[in-house]
Amino acid sequence: MEGYSSNHFLLALYLLLAFTTYINSSSAAAATSTEFIKTSCSATTYPTLCFNSLSSRASAIQNSPKLLAHESLSVALDTARSTSTMMLRLSHTRGMKPRENGAMKDCVEELSDSVDELMNSLGEMSQPKGKSFELMISDIQTWVSAALTDEDTCSEGFAGNAMNGKIKNIVRGRIVNVAHLTSNALALINNYARTP
After folding, report:
1. Residue among 196, 62, 190, 73 nearest 123 (CA)
2. Under 8 Å CB-to-CB from 73, ≥6 apart: which residues?
3. How far is 58 from 128, CA to CA, in rounded Å?
4. CA-wise closest residue to 162 among 113, 117, 96
5. How far is residue 104's CA from residue 157's CA, in Å, rounded to a whole number?
6. End-to-end Cα spacing for the chain
7. Percent composition of the chain: helix, strand, coil (DSSP 3-state, to 5)
8. 166, burial (CB in 10 Å: exposed 0-12, middle 13-18, buried 19+)
9. Higher pLDDT residue, 181 or 3?
10. What percent of the chain has pLDDT over 70?
């Protein structure tokens, strides 16, 4: 009976050691991924936004520049989509001035184009190897740059003193956030392009 107890004790000790090793290695991998994201985001124009928007995706990103670029595009696309939906709802608000209404309609169209371009970029990045790496990156950079231009054009429609108030502040705040996320995605794509 005593041998039976010592075998159980050794088995329990072994399982505890294996579990602790697994937990420690998982924590180390997450810390490494998080540090990779933080270091990579330092090369973007908006590093704090970059890190905050991607750190929750560390397990998906691991230490891969490609996965980091992919996830940053995904974040930009998700945010552009939700902002586009919000803008569409706002465009139906009663009582807007004609200039606000025109800027809102233009912005909805620009954001729709931006969403399409980000979707094209994400789709291209997800494709199995077919095109050359350089051509794929060039296409992605072109689409993301176009999306950034669309977002900037939308934001410019709400510039100036002719439009003041709540709608201007809401729209500009959301559009600036989308543009910053898109800018960060472009920087991370450019980084990925340098490390095939």
Report:
1. 73
2. 118, 121, 122, 125, 144, 185, 189
3. 23
4. 96
5. 8
6. 61
7. 85, 0, 15
8. exposed
9. 181
10. 81
% the chain with pLDDT above 90: 54
Tell me which residue of 167, 146, 178 sits closest to 81, measured CA to CA. Answer: 178
Determine the pLDDT at residue 10. 57
Residues sharing a CB contact under 8 Å with residue 96, sequence separation 6 or more, in sequence order: 104, 167
**Taking Cα atoms as reference points, which of 20, 83, 26, 86 lies closest to residue 58?**
26
The angle that helices 65-90 and 47-54 make with each other, rounded to 10 degrees, is 100
Distance, CA of 106 to CA of 80 (rounded, Å): 15
Per-residue tokens: 22: 């697994």
Position 75 scores a pLDDT of 97
Q: What is the CA radius of gyration of the chain?
A: 23
Q: What is the pLDDT of residues 60-112, one digit of tens each?
A: 999 999 999 999 999 999 999 999 999 888 888 888 778 888 888 899 999 99
